């Protein structure tokens, strides 16, 4: 290479450096490279580990070790020292060498929080970054900071250390906790066909991560606030980990997926529809705006995880389906499928329904959120809704009920009836909806009986009547004379434990002496399905959903007792009249928004104030509850690896 070409490259690099410097200074930040000696002190470091020679990506090299060397380079590692100098001579010589045979000599770096700071080799890094090279060998010394549970970055870094130990991968980073843990689980189960690479982790980086990163950045991903690792993990949750990705397929998928990633990046607020939709006066079929053309009737499908005969949850949703079939008659056609796998296998069922020209598909379990999103991305002209309260997507709206409101009222009944001041609660899965229900129940009980305690036991499964019955007996033996259960009854099984009931067993064989059902929270799904479908049929779909506009909204439906979608039934025979009057008064106040079950002051089990006096818990606080209120005895279980592999826990993102 001639000297003139090397000189031109240096001058161009200097222009890039000065532009970067000026841009950063105008923003009020330093224009120079960050230096490690200004970031850490000896007291911050728990240990130093020599990792030997490691190939590191240049994008992860962000600074120098000492401040004195940092001022020679702009923040983008381009030179700031222009003109004839020894610096220029060395830079151009390295550039020429790289153009002719490549730079192979390792540099020396410190690694801190998965970023690299150069001790020796700043000019080599500068040349390679100018040439847009991918990586460079480096002698790496890792500086491990002391653990600090209050610092999220350090917590993420310790997750990275374990991930890096297992995989050898150092070029991925996540902006939130548990990202490395989740990706690690996918990679543990990953079994690609190895051809070019020696192990599956190198195969993953070469055939999955790097192609994804290139396309993701070309489509604007580099401008989002989330990391490439964040984006790839969300992609994997939907599409899985293939052996390799064709560029065309990947580009089409990522292009569709970008709106979801943008929402994740912006941490976009959700429009939560807590009010009932106004039903149009005229029920005239018209086009569904841009989503579908006018047709004789609307085809609606319901997807069930269990059968109608064996699951109270499925039975309740099917009553809603039968209701809309009856009231909307020839304007709609409905169908349902039962026993759909609670895993990504559900996508195949959704795909067939979409191909059969169903216009609306309701997936009635939160376990279906991932396959539902995948199908919604694949079939944009079909509207998918998922019954859950913990997710928000631009392509999938979710719907759920404020079931904690009637559970609060059943708590009032239980608290007024208990003679032992011990109430048992048989819970299913430790997800926010269940935890919120337990807390609301306990608050209701202690409103009328400050001495009441709520003992919690977990089935860790849905629809487990035998296990639930045994736990009810165990709670009864522990002193609980009133039992609550968050499962729904199955038709025809009058003796099944459900709702709020009394239970008493003898010591000789456990014969049931008495079982009185006092109260039960109920779901009226037909109310939601009817109002939603009537709006669609009237042509007001665009008002209800605004998904395909240039600025789409995240729309969730979260209806309460004021809409009638959730309610309470109780025994007029066994519940005292005074308690009935109180329940009706509180119900009226909740419906009229004059009282909120989660009104402070509310303390947790440890005595920590969670909700201040006279404040009501927000939507976000309620849907992210991972703590018990004062008065609840029991723990929220940490799920073991076997349970974490369960589709529900994986898709709901339950933390260990």
Can you walk through the features of this model?
By secondary structure, the protein is an alpha/beta fold. The protein is 39% helix and 19% strand. It has a seven-stranded parallel beta sheet with strand order 6-17-11-10-9-7-8, sandwiched between helices. Helix 7 (200-218) packs across helix 8 and helix 13 packs parallel to helix 14. The longest helix is centred in the first third of the chain and has 24 residues, at 3-26. It is elongated. The model is unreliable at 282-294, 509-513, 546-551 and 640-656 (pLDDT under 50). It holds the Pfam family Bmp. This is BMP family ABC transporter substrate-binding protein. InterPro entries: ABC-Purine-Binding, PnrA-like.
Descriptive terms for the model:
disordered C terminus, 19% strand, PnrA-like, 656 residues, single chain, seven-stranded mixed β-sheet, BMP family ABC transporter substrate-binding protein, alpha/beta
| Terminal Cα span | 57 Å
- Mind telling me the C-alpha Rg? 30 Å
Q: Which percent band covers the strand fraction? A: 15-25%
- Please give the share of residues in helix: 25-40%
Q: What overall geometry do the principal axes of the alpha carbons give?
A: elongated
- Name the poorly predicted regions: 282-294, 509-513, 546-551, 640-656
For the largest beta-sheet, the strand count, sense and barrel status come to: 7 strands, parallel
Write out the strand line-up for the largest beta sheet, numbering strands in chain order.
6-17-11-10-9-7-8
Domain ABC transporter substrate-binding protein PnrA-like: 299-585
InterPro entries: ABC-Purine-Binding, PnrA-like
Keywords: Signal
Protein name: BMP family ABC transporter substrate-binding protein
């Amino acid at each position: 290479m001639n000297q003139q070409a090397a000189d031109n490259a240096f001058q161009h690099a200097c222009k890039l450096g000065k532009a970067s410097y000026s841009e950063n200074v105008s923003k009020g930040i330093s224009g120079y490279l960050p230096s490690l000696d200004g970031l850490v002190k000896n007291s911050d470091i728990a240990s130093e580990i020599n990792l030997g020679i490691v190939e590191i990506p240049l994008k992860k090299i962000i600074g120098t070790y000492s401040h004195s060397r940092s001022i020679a380079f702009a923040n983008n590692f381009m030179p700031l020292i222009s003109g004839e100098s020894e610096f220029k001579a060395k830079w151009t010589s390295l550039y020429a060498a790289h153009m002719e045979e490549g730079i192979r000599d390792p540099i020396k770096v410190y690694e801190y929080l998965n970023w690299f700071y150069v001790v020796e080799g700043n000019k080599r890094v500068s040349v390679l970054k100018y040439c847009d090279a991918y990586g460079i060998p480096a002698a790496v010394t890792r500086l491990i900071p002391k653990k600090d549970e209050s610092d999220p970055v350090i917590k993420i870094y310790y997750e990275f250390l374990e991930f890096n130990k297992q995989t050898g991968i150092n070029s991925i980073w996540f902006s939130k906790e548990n990202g490395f843990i989740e990706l690690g689980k996918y990679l543990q189960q990953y079994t690609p066909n190895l051809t070019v690479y020696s192990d599956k982790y190198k195969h993953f980086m070469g055939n999955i991560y790097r192609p994804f990163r290139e396309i993701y950045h070309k489509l604007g991903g580099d401008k989002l606030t989330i990391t490439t690792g964040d984006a790839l993990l969300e992609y994997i949750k939907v599409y899985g980990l293939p052996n390799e990705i064709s560029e065309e397929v990947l580009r089409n998928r990522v292009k569709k997926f970008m709106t979801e990633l943008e929402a994740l990046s912006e941490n976009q607020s959700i429009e939560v529809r807590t009010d009932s939709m106004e039903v149009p006066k005229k029920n005239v079929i018209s086009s569904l705006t841009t989503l579908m053309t006018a047709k004789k009737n609307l085809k609606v499908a319901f997807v069930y995880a269990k059968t109608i005969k064996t699951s109270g949850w499925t039975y309740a949703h099917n009553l809603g389906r039968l209701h809309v079939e009856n009231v909307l008659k020839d304007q709609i056609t409905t169908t349902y499928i039962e026993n759909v796998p609670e895993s990504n296998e559900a996508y195949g069922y959704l795909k067939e329904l979409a191909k059969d020209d169903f216009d609306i598909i309701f997936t009635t379990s939160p376990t279906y959120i991932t396959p539902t999103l995948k199908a919604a991305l694949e079939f944009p002209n079909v509207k998918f809704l998922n019954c859950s309260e913990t997710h928000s997507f631009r392509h999938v709206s979710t719907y759920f009920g404020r079931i904690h409101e009637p559970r609060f009222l059943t708590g009032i009944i239980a608290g007024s009836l208990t003679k032992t001041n011990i109430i048992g609660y048989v819970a299913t899965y430790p997800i926010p909806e269940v935890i919120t229900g337990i807390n609301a129940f306990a608050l209701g009980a202690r409103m009328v009986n400050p001495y009441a305690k709520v003992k919690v036991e977990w089935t860790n499964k849905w629809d487990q009547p035998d296990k639930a019955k045994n736990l009810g007996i165990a709670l009864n033996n522990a002193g609980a004379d009133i039992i609550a259960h968050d499962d729904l009854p199955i038709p025809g099984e009058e003796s099944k434990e459900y709702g709020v009931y009394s239970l008493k067993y003898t010591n000789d064989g456990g014969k049931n002496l008495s079982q009185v059902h006092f109260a039960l929270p109920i779901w009226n799904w037909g109310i939601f399905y009817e109002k939603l479908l009537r709006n669609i049929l009237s042509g007001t779909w665009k008002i209800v959903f605004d998904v395909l506009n240039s600025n789409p909204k995240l729309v969730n439906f979260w209806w309460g007792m004021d809409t009638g979608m959730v309610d309470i039934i109780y025994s007029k025979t066994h519940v005292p009249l005074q308690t009935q009057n109180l329940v009706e008064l509180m119900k009226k106040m909740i419906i009229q928004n004059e009282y909120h079950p989660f009104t402070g002051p509310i303390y947790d089990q440890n005595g920590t104030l969670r909700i201040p006096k006279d404040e009501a818990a927000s939507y976000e606080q309620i849907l992210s509850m991972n703590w018990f209120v004062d008065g609840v005895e029991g723990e929220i279980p940490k799920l073991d690896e076997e349970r974490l592999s369960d589709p529900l826990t994986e898709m709901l993102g339950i933390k260990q």
